[in-house]
Write a structure and sequence with these properties.
This protein is an all-alpha fold. The protein has helices at about 20-35, 35-55, 65-80. The longest helix is centred in the last third of the chain and has 20 residues, at about 65-80. The chain is elongated, with a radius of gyration of 18 Å.
């Protein structure tokens, strides 16, 4: 943060803490430097599943929602076969 993000736009309104833009930039640099590409792929899959689980349907009784739930459950099953320690 001190070396690359010196501009004040990378700080929150209190001018002490990093802004959301700075946090995203730092996280991106960190993941590229320290997390393998395979682990990054798994992280993206988990993120997609988590977002799907948080989704609130407009019509929970529709066929489209049932298909959506089945798709999420299949993704969870596939991921847990590769990584049994991941629990949703």
């Amino acid at each position: 943060m001190m070396d690359e993000l010196r501009d004040y736009r990378f700080y929150a309104a209190d001018m002490i803490h990093p802004s959301e833009t700075a946090i995203n930039y730092i996280w991106e640099r960190f993941t590229h430097a320290y997390i393998s590409e395979e682990a990054q792929k798994t992280m993206l899959e988990v993120d997609a599943i988590q977002k799907g689980l948080q989704h609130r349907p407009f019509n929970p009784n529709s066929a489209a929602h049932a298909a959506f739930i089945a798709n999420i459950e299949q993704k969870i099953s596939d991921l847990q076969q590769l990584h049994p320690h991941i629990v949703f």
